[in-house]
């Protein structure tokens, strides 16, 4: 079929069965995609998998069935192309042929004179969703965990028909959301109900009898007793939608993600071009982007998130984790309340909040109950689960309720003396085996535990806000933290469905330390006299999720200054204290008003007379990041540069096209210019 081969491909077989379905007088061809593994290794398509599908379609058509239906193995339809083989492509012609191969096979379902159906029983992403779009009709299981076209997040475009079929099915605005906006928003997935409401699926069914009901519905469609109605796509507003989308892209990314612009162009083509013309342009875009540094960085980042994050480097493997049957949360503020809800939902064990007075405790518990009610209202939690989780979370002003807790986490004011006092009081209450976790964002775990009788059971457990959204959990090992406490921390982190990274006890740990260095370089440029607008826009070419001032406003100048003080005490040369940042913290002014710099902020600053250009600011920031990351690695704060990138992707939302940050620093030459060497071997996350 083709001379392209992926040596490492786990071939997804297309298994054909001819079955009888009531309501039709001929056999039905049911093709099941199955790579022979369970749901932990999803179905993907490489050249071998595409060949198998084409052969199954041949066999199905030869049987002259009433209809052809495609479904997947349990929990998984297909998650798209086999990305392991993409870096092996050596020529533009090979990349072009890979796109054409997928189009040739999938188009057989679109062009079939026999009705074709996709029964999307589970995860359908990328090429898997594109396969379903080629079928004439689609049913969808409400249990499908992941629905998306995530290619743009990797530096690609949907290259097997998605940019042409989807906008003509659900309109250009919805298509741009699925193809561009969602991938660039931490790779957001569609919920089955949302996908059905958009029109991606024709029918939403429950998982229990999904296949049986899908077959019966398909028989009704073929037999004429079921009519499928789809709304007409508004073609008059097509160009206007894309004009607006392009303006938003330029404002947000400033050309940093070539794949996003190519995808938008292809959606534009879908308005008037023939399917053959549109898919030919998809082939060209795919081939061009396969040989880009952004794709190599995207694949590197994808591997970090999908593999490294699931097997944390350095996590104890020979020590048994303690079973956690009750959790205590010290504090009842916003962070503590978020933690209580997360622990109750994921661990399904009693969680008790404490604070200084009943009013604060009641407010914390009320927050948890309100969030549960919101989840029910949005269909994210059923009423039975809500009642159970609500009952698990209680509050008290008496810390003796922690006596039988196996895991206690504090989320009190970020002051070392306060935290030490908390642990000193709690050590007299909890059992000697209880693990004590601190959610500190910058303070020393070692110092926090220094005066305790059992300092070995104190561990850093640093979440990122909002707790329910950001997947990173930095697990910090103090100088005396035991393997047993650490093993329990990692086990709990996994139960919380967080991606854990082992971090040595060091000021501000990893993500916050890198972010504060980033903001410090911007602040230094402002202090020198660089206009706020220039300093704020200087980093635009990187395509970060938000500009520096928006980030500073989100974090809060007071918190930023507090963390900077901690870092300044440890590294005064690299983290200077800024009088202007202190003034902003004291003034409590909004830094931005309607996305513009607040004039009152500008008036507040006292600056020098040595302004920098945008290019100079950007290079100063990149140099600072390279220096700080090299220092982190040399000091053994994390095992490898990959862990820094993982922290920045999962804790700060830094994009895949940068690979986190170190691939970008390598390919721009910054790493070698500043530190004398690269962070990653050549070719790891770039073409050269």
From TrEMBL:
Pfam families in the record? 3HCDH (PF00725), 3HCDH_N (PF02737), ECH_1 (PF00378)
User: Which reactions does this protein catalyse?
Assistant: a (3S)-3-hydroxyacyl-CoA + NAD(+) = a 3-oxoacyl-CoA + NADH + H(+)
Which pathway is it part of? Lipid metabolism; fatty acid beta-oxidation; Lipid metabolism; butanoate metabolism
Residue ranges constituting the 3-hydroxyacyl-CoA dehydrogenase C-terminal domain according to the UniProt record: 509-586
Matching entries from CDD domains are given as: crotonase-like
Single GO term (MF): NAD+ binding
Q: Tell me the protein's name.
A: 3-hydroxyacyl-CoA dehydrogenase/enoyl-CoA hydratase/carnithine racemase
Domain 3-hydroxyacyl-CoA dehydrogenase NAD binding spans what residues? 326-505
Homology family? In the central section; belongs to the 3-hydroxyacyl-CoA dehydrogenase family. Belongs to the 3-hydroxyacyl-CoA dehydrogenase family.
Please, one GO biological process term?
fatty acid beta-oxidation
Q: Which domain of life is it from?
A: Bacteria
Print the keywords alphabetically: Fatty acid metabolism, Lipid degradation, Lipid metabolism, Lyase, Multifunctional enzyme, NAD, Oxidoreductase
